[in-house]
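Technical appendix A lists one of the benchmark inputs used to test multi-chain prediction within the project. The record comprises two sequence entries:
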Amino acid sequence: MQLTNHVRLYRQQHKWTQEQFAERIGVTRQTVISLEKGSYTPSLLLAMQIARVFDRPVEELFQLEEDSK
Amino acid sequence: MKRVVTQSLLNCCLYFLAAYLISAIHANLKLFQDDPVSGTGLSLKLDLRIILPLIIIAIIVSGIGYLSRTDRSRSLSKWSTSTAEFSDSDEREAQITGKATRAAYVAFMISLPVLMIAFLFEQPLLERYPAFPFYAIALILSVGTITYMTAWIVHIRR
């Protein structure tokens, strides 16, 4: 199982830089970069914070995908 | 990342300075014990050729660390007393700190038996390098710290 997200897409729609977005959710820019690349799985708290910032449900931003083998 | 590197390098300098200081005290104590009646007491001799480069490196690294601090409002006293290597400004950094600490612990568990093997040859080593145990301990501590730093850099770049 793998968690994918559309954080980059929504951030770009809101015309926020990674720095601005990081400030809004209270993390470092490095974490935003890692999150957008999909190499970091956020905690439930952070995922809900991100959803709140975008005013979208969590499941719209994050999806669980089966590993393709 | 800079603060973790700075603090780790400063810690390594500190280990070797401590090893040097302890070995210098040890050497002088031995001198005093050899002649307790007419001995001159404890007179500490420090070789500046060894101690000065370490102090200069520590000052340079501290200066770079202080000037490149992320929180500019932080005073020198607050900056110098913080344990910057345990960086946890968000949940990801806290997680990375945990992983790096684990790697450092594993490094200790591997390097300690290696040091114990080295102690099997303690006698010839002590004859050649009397301060060998102190530097060996400094080396073991440095291995842990360098492993911590490396693991932190590897994880933060992912």
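Chain B touches chain A at residues 89-93, 156, 158 (CB under 8 Å). The radius of gyration of chain B is 19 Å. Comparable benchmark entries are summarised in Table A2.
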